[in-house]
Write a structure and sequence with these properties.
The structure is a single chain. The protein contains three helices and nine strands. It is of the alpha+beta class. Strands 2-8-4-5-7 form a five-stranded antiparallel β-sheet, with no helix packed on it. The chain has a four-stranded antiparallel β-sheet with strand order 1-9-3-6. It is elongated, with a radius of gyration of 24 Å. It starts with a helix and ends with a strand. 19% of the residues are buried.
């Protein structure tokens, strides 16, 4: 009988460990991603607002509203596991005959009522001559911002004046990847 006790304890431990591991794997397998395309935003960079080289200015501030309750109902969700920006892309719309050598750096942040401003992406121009910039995401989990009714995306810029023209029109595109767990 004494010889069976260690075997019984080992068996119970193995059953519990297997059950716990299996449940976690099932939970992970059931998770899926929802992709939310943030509406495009057009904005102007005015050369008269760019006065001092290296000074950081807000080039864009736009509000984002994602109805999390509606997402939960539509997809029968238990909870949001995480949310991150997939990409933030800035593109020169006009004039099309210039490049971005006048742009020194970019920094994207989120802010919401009662929360500290949080950096989510950056870009440093290393001599690129393109009309499109893909910011580097820092994989910040933005779930707390989604749970607010509304939050704001800010794009801070640093310039290498002078701008090649008086006004540059730019377009911002972005997408949020929301990892969710069904009921």
């Amino acid at each position: 009988m004494k010889a069976l006790k260690p075997l019984l304890y080992t068996l119970i431990f193995c059953v519990i460990a297997t059950y716990t591991t299996s449940c976690e794997k099932i939970k992970e397998a059931a998770e899926f991603d929802l992709l939310y395309n943030v509406p495009e935003v057009s904005f102007n960079v005015d050369s008269t607002a760019v006065s001092i080289a290296g000074e950081e200015v807000i080039a864009l501030e736009t509000s984002i509203f994602i109805d999390v309750d509606s997402l939960n109902r539509r997809h029968n969700l238990k909870k949001i596991e995480s949310a991150r920006f997939d990409f933030i892309r800035l593109q020169v719309v006009s004039p099309t005959n210039i490049n971005l050598n006048w742009l020194k750096s970019l920094r994207a942040t989120l802010r919401a009522e009662g929360m500290p401003e949080t950096e989510i992406a950056t870009y440093v121009n290393e001599g690129e001559q393109d009309l499109i910039v893909d910011m580097v995401q820092n994989n910040s989990n933005i779930t707390p911002f989604l749970l607010k009714k509304q939050f704001y995306l800010r794009i801070y810029t640093q310039f290498n004046p002078p701008l090649p023209v008086r006004t540059v029109t730019m377009l911002m595109n972005s997408r949020i990847r929301i990892t969710v767990q069904p009921l």
